[in-house]
Amino acid sequence: MKKLLYMFLALSLMFGCSSDSEDDIPNMCIDESLINGLPCTAEVEPVCGCDGITYNNSCEAVNWYGVIAYGEGPCD
Fold first, then answer.
1. DSSP three-state, residue 76
2. Is the confidence at residue 2, as pLDDT, over 70?
């Protein structure tokens, strides 16, 4: 019975302390130190940010939102 209790406690701690790594993606994708609010051109050349959001262009993605990685074209 004692072994079962220890096993239950160990499993509870192991699964209770784990985190969903998908929740951390936006945090790893945004660098607030890049946000500077500088003006960007009005060109619409969509980029897909690593956070899964489509931005009008790379300037907006980086300078207004701090996105550190993006791909050309809108997000799917």
1. coil
2. no
The answer, yes or no, to whether residue 49 has pLDDT greater than 50, is yes
Query: Residue 54 contacts by C-beta under 8 Å, 6 or more apart in sequence?
Result: 46, 47, 48, 74, 75
What is the DSSP code string of 18-50? ---GGGGHHHHHB-GGG------------EEET
The amino acid at 2: K
Predicted local confidence at residue 52, as pLDDT:
95
